[in-house]
């Protein structure tokens, strides 16, 4: 057990949102990828709601050019609210209010797209000398799961930094940061991270534990990031800084992993984005039952079974 200073509460979150969203072009030519709707909310709102459920109400979003829509979304829209009030449309008015009342959402520009590690470093003056969460907007965690809360609890027990891990097929591990771990006796899915490799080459690692987009970071990560040289992709990789943290016995050192076995939706991938729309759509309080019934009906239809889909896919390429 580490000393009491490592039990400081996690009160702030950082959401890196400066990416160009090239995998979703042309949809993201004029719309930030974080504002693409997942059912009836933009993807980034799910992430801010997740932070709020974990008791984190101070959120810094690190943006780039053409991201003004993010600020508009979390701001009050007086004209729209007044129009809904005049119509007596309380349901939609509550939805609009919710996005502006999730907490204190701040914004800062990254300036140059120098990687995730650099985006985190941009948050230093806001975070100060406190542990903080980093939530990637591409990864949506099902609201029925409590990954962030489990990670905060692991930080409270062991100090240092905490990463979220998920088992993936071995032929996909090259798409992620990969963690080598040791078991912690008596702590189930909480493990000690001994090494990290960003997007390893085939045969480079013997682990299938991928780092997914949730972190609890000790503030000692900042001086490490300051001297971390560009790595894979010529970007400052957060993974590289965490490798040094994992090997450190100093204050704030050590990296713990929480193995996540719940539902994660990678909305940065077009196919997974569509899957997220279907899964979350079927759970929607208002639309879910009707949408689920339609899906079942469509799955039994001639269109779903006669190869029409394949022909349409060929035409859409």
TrEMBL record:
InterPro entries: GalU_uridylyltTrfase_bac/arc (IPR005771), NTP_transferase_dom (IPR005835), Nucleotide-diphossugar_trans (IPR029044). Belongs to the UDPGP type 2 family. It catalyses: alpha-D-glucose 1-phosphate + UTP + H(+) = UDP-alpha-D-glucose + diphosphate. GO terms for biological process: UDP-alpha-D-glucose metabolic process. Its EC number is 2.7.7.9. It comes from Leekyejoonella antrihumi. Keywords: Nucleotidyltransferase, Transferase. PANTHER family: UTP--GLUCOSE-1-PHOSPHATE URIDYLYLTRANSFERASE. The lineage of its organism: Bacteria, Bacillati, Actinomycetota, Actinomycetes, Micrococcales. This is UTP--glucose-1-phosphate uridylyltransferase.
């Amino acid at each position: 057990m580490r000393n009491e200073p490592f039990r400081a509460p996690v009160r702030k979150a950082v959401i890196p949102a400066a990416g160009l969203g090239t995998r979703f072009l042309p949809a993201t030519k004029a719309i930030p990828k974080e504002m693409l709707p997942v059912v009836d909310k933009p993807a980034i709102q799910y992430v801010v709601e997740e932070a709020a459920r974990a008791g984190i109400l101070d959120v810094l979003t690190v943006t780039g050019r053409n991201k003004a829509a993010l600020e508009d979304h979390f701001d009050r829209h007086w004209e729209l609210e007044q129009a809904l009030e005049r119509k007596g449309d309380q349901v939609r008015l509550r939805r609009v209010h919710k996005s502006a009342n999730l907490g204190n959402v701040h914004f800062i520009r990254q300036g140059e797209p120098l990687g995730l590690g650099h985006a985190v470093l941009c948050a230093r003056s806001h975070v100060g000398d406190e542990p903080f969460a980093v939530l990637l907007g591409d990864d949506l965690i099902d609201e029925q799961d409590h990954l962030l809360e489990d990670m905060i609890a692991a930080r409270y027990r062991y100090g240092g930094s905490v990463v979220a891990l998920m088992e993936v097929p071995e032929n996909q591990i090259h798409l992620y940061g990969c963690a080598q771990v040791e078991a912690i006796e008596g702590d189930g899915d909480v493990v000690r991270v001994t090494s990290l490799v960003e997007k390893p080459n085939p045969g480079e690692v013997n682990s299938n534990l991928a780092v997914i987009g949730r972190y609890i970071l000790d503030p000692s990560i900042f001086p490490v990031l300051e001297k971390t040289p560009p790595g894979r992709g010529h970007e400052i990789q957060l993974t590289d800084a965490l490798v040094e943290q994992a090997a450190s016995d100093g204050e704030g050192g050590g990296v713990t992993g929480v193995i996540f076995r719940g539902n994660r939706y990678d909305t940065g991938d077009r196919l997974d984005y569509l899957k997220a729309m279907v899964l979350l759509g079927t759970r929607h309080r208002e639309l879910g039952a009707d949408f689920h019934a339609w899906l079942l009906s469509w799955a039994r239809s001639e269109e779903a079974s006669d190869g029409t889909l394949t022909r349409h896919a060929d035409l859409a390429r």
